[in-house]
Amino acid sequence: MPKQIRINAFDMNCVGHIQHGMWTHPRDRSVEYRTLAYWQHLAQVAERGLLDGIFLADILGVYDVYKGGPESAIANAVQIPLNDPLLVVPAMAAVTKHLGFGVTCNLTYEPPYTFARRMSTLDHLTDGRIGWNIVTGYLDSAARGMGFASQPEHDQRYDVADEYMDVVYKLWEASWDDDAVLRDRQAGLYARPEKVRPVRHDGKYYHLDAIHLCEPSPQRTPVLFQAGASTRGRAFAARHAECVFTYSPNKETTRAIVTDLRERAVRNGRAASDILVFAGCAVVVGRTRKEAEEKYAEYRRHASIEGALAHFSASLGVDLGQYALDEPIRYEKNNANNSMLEAITIRSKEPWTLRRIIDRMVLGSRNAPIVGAPDEVADALQSWVEETDIDGFNLSRVVTPEGLEDFVDLVVPVLQERGLFKREYAPGTLREKLFGAGRARLPDTHCAAAVRPRASDRPLVLAAK
Question: Can you point out the beta strands (E) in 350-391?
Fold first, then answer.
C-alpha cells in the first residue's frame, strides 16, 4: 500500500511570505490578511481539500541585512507588516471541524509559564487541533527589539531551548492529574486540590515554582513541529519533534536529512515513525500543461527579486548586495540560519553565485515551483515522497487563495485516485489524525513522558535536570 501523503497549507499572517511580489497580482488577496474573513475562507478551502493543517510561519524582527537596512523588505512587504499568528487560529477553528493548525512561536523571547498557558488555551479552543513549530530565531533585529544587543550564539540557543522544553513539558504533562477536574455542581467542587501540584524547576536558564494555569487540554502538549536542519537543530528535533519541516533544494540532500533525523530519533529511544518530515514546495497547476505554463508566466511578471534577496540575505546572515553577479558566496560563520548558508557554500558541489541565486528566484523565492497539469504535479509530489522518504509537504502560497483552490480542486482528486491521499478525515485530535487513534498525547517513548507523575508522587517536586 503506498504511503499516504500529508499536506499542510503553508502561510503567514502578513502580505508577503515566501513568493515575494505576488501581492501585486490583481487576483491576489493577501492584502486582506488583516481580516477574519480572509483566514476563515482559507481554512474552509483547506478543509474542503482534506489538508492536514494550516502551518503558520512567524518571525520576530525585520529583514535588515540586505544592503545594510530594512528598506527593501519594507518596500516589498517582505514579511512586514506582520501580525501575530496565534490570534487568527480560533477564528479558523470556528469554521472548521478537522483542520489542524501549526503555529510558529519563538521560545527565545517567550517566558515558558505564560507561553504554556497560551498553547493550552488554543488546544482547548480547537478541541485538540493545535501544533507548535518550535523556533529559536535567527535575526539580530529581533534581539534588539527585545532589549538585547544581539541574539545568543546559534548552538547556545538550542541549549536554552532544551531546558525550555523541559519546563513546558512539566507544566503541560505534570501539574494537573487526568482526574483532577470534577466539575461537580452539587458538591460545589470544580477541581480536587490534591490532584493539582506546582512545577518546581531550578535550572541554568529557567527558574519556576508555579501551578500550570490551565486544566488538562485534549492533547496536553501540542503537536511538536521543528524546522532546524543544522547539526544541532537535528539533534534537538530527534529528541523533541514529531513533525520536521525541511526546505532542501534537491532530493539527495533531503534524503540525507530524513535518514539522519530518523536514525537520531532511534538513538533517543524513539521509533523512526515517530517523526514525520514535511518538505516545503510551491505548486502552479492548471487543467492542462499549457494553462499551467501560461499561469506561471503570468505570475513571474509579478515576482520581486529585490524582495527575495532581502529575505534570503537575512536568512543567511550575509548581505548578498555586496556580491558581484558571478562572485562565489563565501561561508561566514554567524548566528543566522547556519544550515542554509552551509548548503550553498561548504556543502555545495559547485559554488553558488548571486547570478545562480537570482536565476532560481523565478517567483520571488529561492526555489522554483512545481508547474504542470494535475497528473504532472501529482507525479512530482509522488516522486519526492518515494525517493526521499518524506511524509508530505508544506505547500506555500503563490497567488492566494487561487493557488490553494487550484490545488484542492485539481491535484487532490488525482492523489486520491492513486491511493496517495485520504478521502476523509480520521477522528480525534491533530496528533491522532497524524499518528493514529488513541494517540492524543505524546507516546511513552517521548522524553516528555519522563515528567508525568506517578501514583507515589505526593506532593510532586520536579527538579531541573
Answer: 370-372
Give the domains, in start order, of the chain with CATH numbers.
6-182+192-299+370-451 (3.20.20.30)
Residue 369 is classified by DSSP as: P
Q: Label the pairing between strands 199-202 and 189-191.
A: unpaired
For residue 462, the model assigns a pLDDT of 46
Write out the E strands in 325-420: 370-372, 392-396
Q: How far apart are CA 207 and CA 232, in angstroms?
A: 24
Q: How far is CA 57 from CA 49, 278, 312, in A?
A: 21, 14, 16
Low-confidence winner among 168-172, 249-253, 415-419 (lowest mean pLDDT): 249-253
Are the C-beta atoms of 78 and 72 separated by less than 8 Å? Answer: yes
Residue 157 pLDDT greater than 60, yes or no: yes
Residues 352-393: tens digit of each pLDDT = 999 999 998 999 998 889 999 999 999 999 999 999 999 999
Contact 462, 199 (CB under 8 A): yes
Q: Where are the beta strands (DSSP E) in 290-373?
A: 370-372
User: Cα–Cα distance between 207 and 227 in angstroms, integer?
Assistant: 27
Give strand ranges (E) for 417-465: none
Neighbours of 264 (CB within 10 A): 18
| Radius of gyration for the chain, computed over Cα atoms and rounded to the nearest angstrom | 22
pLDDT at residue 465, rounded to an integer: 45
Kindly give the pairing relationship between strand 6-12 and strand 53-57.
Answer: parallel
Please choose, from the candidates 394, 346, 339, the residue with its C-alpha nearest in 3D space to the C-alpha of residue 158. Answer: 339
**Residues 4-19: tens digit of each pLDDT:** 999 999 999 999 999 9
CA separation, residue 278 to residues 37, 86, 257 (Å): 28, 21, 11
Grouping H, G, I as helix, E, B as strand and the rest as coil, residue 14 is strand
In the predicted model, is pLDDT for residue 249 greater than 80?
A: no
Q: Is the pLDDT of residue 228 over 80?
A: no
Residues 50-60, mean pLDDT to the nearest whole number: 97
Q: Residue 407 phi/psi, 5° resolution?
A: -65, -45
Closest CA to 351 of 377, 385, 325: 325
Cα–Cα distance between 283 and 394 in angstroms, integer? 11
Helices 374-388 & 251-267, crossing angle to 10 degrees?
Answer: 40
